[in-house]
Design a protein that fits this description.
The chain has one domain (about 5-105): HIT-like (HIT family, subunit A), CATH 3.30.428.10. The protein has a five-stranded antiparallel beta sheet, with helices on one face. The longest helix is centred in the middle third of the chain and has 22 residues, at about 50-75. It is globular, with a radius of gyration of 14 Å. By secondary structure, it is of the alpha+beta class. The protein contains two helices and five strands. Helix content is about 25%, strand content about 20%.
């Protein structure tokens, strides 16, 4: 069975798409933790067992997309946070490489 992100990428599940190209898609999170909360992920499935070379290429594409999505949502001028969770103890619930882009208000400090 395909993961939820693969289903979104293939338009089998409706999502509010912010931006996409042939390799990456960015959608609004359905349970936002900030005024702007986007999920950015590769369209092809990359789970925890993905080959490092594929993940490396995907990261380059994802970080280019993060810049574009930050501009489109207007948080590029005020600031934003990029978060990824890896494995269960970090809070990862979908085994598909993805990043959360958060902004739109003061997020406070995470680390000192």
């Amino acid at each position: 069975m395909e993961c939820i992100f693969c289903q979104i990428a293939k338009k089998k599940i409706k999502a509010d798409i912010i931006w996409e190209d042939k390799d990456v898609i960015a959608v609004y999170d359905i349970d936002p933790k900030a005024k702007v909360h986007a999920l950015i992920f590769p369209k092809s499935h990359l789970g925890k067992s993905a080959h490092e070379k594929k993940v490396g290429l995907a990261l380059k594409q994802i970080f280019s997309a993060i810049r574009i999505v930050a501009q489109r949502t207007g948080i590029d001028k005020t600031g934003f946070r990029v978060v990824t969770n890896h494995l269960k103890d970090a809070g990862q619930t979908v085994d598909h490489v993805h990043f959360h882009l958060l902004g739109g208000h003061s997020l406070g400090r995470m680390c000192d």
